[in-house]
Design brief:
- By secondary structure, this protein is an alpha+beta fold.
- The chain contains twelve helices and 20 strands.
- Strands 2, 10, 12, 13, 14, 16, 17 and 18 form an eight-stranded mixed sheet that branches.
- Helix 8 runs parallel beside helix 10.
- The two termini are about 20 Å apart.
Length: about 425
């Protein structure tokens, strides 16, 4: 792949800081996959394993839906894509080795998925580990991926969301993991954590026959990747102090600066990281360097690590001045924090407190410089999503109704305007038609 597969945009919340004092601002880093690169380049061959939950809790309609989903998804892939099948209950089993879909393997996978029976305990960890072993070492110009189909109720091996997130994060950057949830009582927190650690997507599947777009997004989350192994490094200049990513995205402070991994870059999809900065602003007018942003990554399917670096400066003036687009990106990061807080409260049945948390953030956005209601911007769309969520919580729903609504809520991304991030992809030719 020639050229640069990623787009990098770096800005500060303030275009100017008041000279001669200490100031708080935020660094906004946006990394996205270049759409032109995705259209022009050949998609790396997919080497993928479906991991199917055959534990007792999947008995009946959930397992039937899983089999139908596998049949639908293998139909979306190319003959040269390589696919295997793993099932798990208390232990994992290889049902089909990883082979190209052409030559009858597609039909074999569909037939074997329909023969599954449900019984026993649930060991998600065993299923995921078996799938990664089955994939083997990553070859050049090949994407490795796992799709877990489950109700997400593990009771063997790694069982908590935190443990499952750490497990799939350990497979990175060579293997991406996405999840599909089944059954009215599936554990969305666990499945979302699996997908989060694996830099994939999580979706609830109610009716496989009406979920073609969902399946295409999950497979496209791997097929549309133009860069992986992405790491952000912020080296602060003298006089600049940094904190971790706003919103709690994983990061660590090293002698070189603040480091943090980013999800794989997909064509037309951007990921944003916001970093609080405290700056000792020198006296007098002029420009001041606050730090250097360095991004390292691999073009999809390649082994070479590439880097891009940007020096970040801010003007020194008599008074501070906001950069409104960057300020709005910071507000979106705070909105994501408010939603996380609201969800934690609602999970305990504290719906009034959850709604109040959202309403406070809504009021903060409405008072922001440059905000305009219903103007089609990401900020206004995100606010509308938060209003919808607050209204639901203010009605004090039953826990069953809340859990049903939460399945949709958990897929939302404030930096995508309160929609599912995958819905804002500008798909290239390979994403629109995986075949």
């Amino acid at each position: 792949m020639s050229g640069e597969p990623i787009e990098l945009d770096v800005s500060l919340e303030h275009r100017a800081l008041a000279a001669g004092g200490r100031a708080r601002t935020h660094l906004v880093v946006r990394v996205g996959g270049d759409v032109a690169m995705a259209v022009e380049a050949a998609r790396p061959r997919l080497r993928l394993v479906f991991v199917l939950d055959t534990s007792g809790s999947m008995n009946g309609p959930p397992l039937e839906a899983v089999a139908e989903s596998v049949a639908e998804m293998v139909g979306l892939l190319r003959d040269e894509d390589e696919v295997g099948l793993v099932t798990f209950a208390e232990e994992a089993a290889t049902v089909a080795e990883v082979r190209p879909l052409g030559g009858g393997h597609r039909v074999t996978l569909q037939r074997r998925a329909r023969r599954m029976r449900a019984n026993g305990a649930t060991n998600v960890e065993a299923g995921l580990r078996r799938a990664v072993e089955l994939l083997g070492a990553r070859e050049t110009h090949t994407r490795h991926a796992v799709v877990l189909l489950s109700d997400g109720i593990p009771n063997r091996g790694a069982a908590s969301p935190e443990a499952l997130r750490a497990l799939t994060r350990s497979f990175r950057p060579d293997v991406g993991v996405s999840c599909l949830g089944y059954g009215a009582h599936h554990a969305e927190e666990a499945l979302a954590a699996v997908a989060d650690g694996g830099a994939g997507e999580y979706h609830f599947v109610e009716t496989p026959g009406a979920a073609a777009d969902t399946f295409a997004r999950v497979l496209g989350a791997q097929g549309d990747v133009v860069a992986d192994a992405i790491e952000l490094l912020l080296r602060p200049a003298d006089g600049t102090e940094i904190e971790g990513f706003l919103g709690g995205a994983p990061s660590r402070v090293t002698s070189a600066g603040l480091r943090g991994a980013l999800p794989d870059a997909r064509a037309g999809v951007s990921k944003v990281r916001v970093v609080p900065l405290d700056v000792d602003v020198a006296a007098g007018p002029g420009a001041q360097t606050v730090g250097v942003v360095r991004v390292s990554y691999r073009a999809a399917g390649e082994a070479e690590v590439r880097t891009r670096e940007v020096e970040v400066e801010v003007a020194r003036e008599a008074t501070s001045a906001l950069d409104e687009p960057a300020h709005h990106a910071v507000l979106l990061a705070h909105a994501e924090e408010a939603r996380s807080q609201a969800r934690a409260l609602a999970d305990r049945g504290a719906f009034d407190g959850a709604a109040a948390s959202l309403r406070q953030m809504i009021a903060r956005i409405e008072a922001a410089p440059g905000y305009a209601a219903n103007d089609g911007s990401l900020l206004s769309e995100a606010l509308e999503q938060m209003v919808d969520e607050a209204v639901v919580l203010e009605q004090r729903p039953s826990m069953e109704s809340y859990r049903a609504y939460k399945r949709e809520w958990m897929g939302m991304d404030m930096h995508a305007g309160g929609a599912h991030a995958g819905d804002h992809a500008v798909h290239g030719a390979q994403a629109a038609a995986l075949k």
